[in-house]
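Section 4.2 – Deliverable D4.2 (structural model, holo form)

The reporting period included a commitment to supply a predicted holo structure for the target in complex with zinc ion. Inputs used:
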Amino acid sequence: MKTFVIACLWCVTLLTVPQSQAALQIVTTTEDLAAIAKAVGGDHIKVHSLTPGSRDPHFAQAKPSMIRKVYGADLLLLIGADMEIGWLPPLLRSGRNSQVLPGNPGYLDLSTTVTLLGKPTGPVTRDMGDVHTQGNPHYWLDPKNGLLMAQAITERLVALDPDHSNAYQRNLASFQQRLTDKMKEWQATLTPLKGDKVIAYHTSLIYLATAFGFQIVDEVEPKPGIAPTAAHLNRLIKRIEDDQIKLLIMESYYEQRSAKFLQDKTGIRIGVIPQSVGAMPGIGDYIQLFDTIATTLKQAGTF
Ligand SMILES: [Zn+2]
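Output (structure tokens):
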């Protein structure tokens, strides 16, 4: 039955993909990658994200529309470091496009372009939760990594489409300039957070913490991907009180009951931040993402 469904999806795919495409067709696993690609590719590329920024990127369900996008792509950009391990490999098998398979010019894993943090030091076992063995994949939340990702995407666009090399290089220079200027502004806004101890929901904020100089000392999840238990929340209450932790930062797609419970018991403030472009209305590009994060943390931290 499963084979039959995939075969049918495949027929639909063949019938609906246009054969001649002038602009480079780019498919990304997240909206952050799509936004950075758009910033450097401009009008010479067409970009489609496979997942919306409002959803948890660890999970996605393969749909015929996603298979069609993979089939028609010249280039696939992914976060890598096992972020999409649960859903991208089967999608690539159904997409039947060798150009965008690992090792080919149409496959770019951006995790290879940055320094990953949080690599587990000892052996990884199942009871450690959803630990990413290659390191923490939430690296786009450090804007310095955005500079490196833009650079790597530009190099690949130039290799695939050398005719527009000048345009890509120009767009890259202007994106990097805007981002570098903005980084100074965000640093200034978030200076009061420097050195502060903060609680996160999931182990997703170490890059943001590194970028802006605060410390994540604990998480609402007892282990990555594992729902909080009463015992863990009680332990956190004690930790928040002992260490006088004032701020809990979490992504908008997690349940907020546990955070509200901690707030009721300790008075800790909660900052619900967008984790991706498209996570909330008005966040259409990578710079607006950090604009919103900086404003949200400023309001939540009341500084
Ligand atoms: Zn994660």
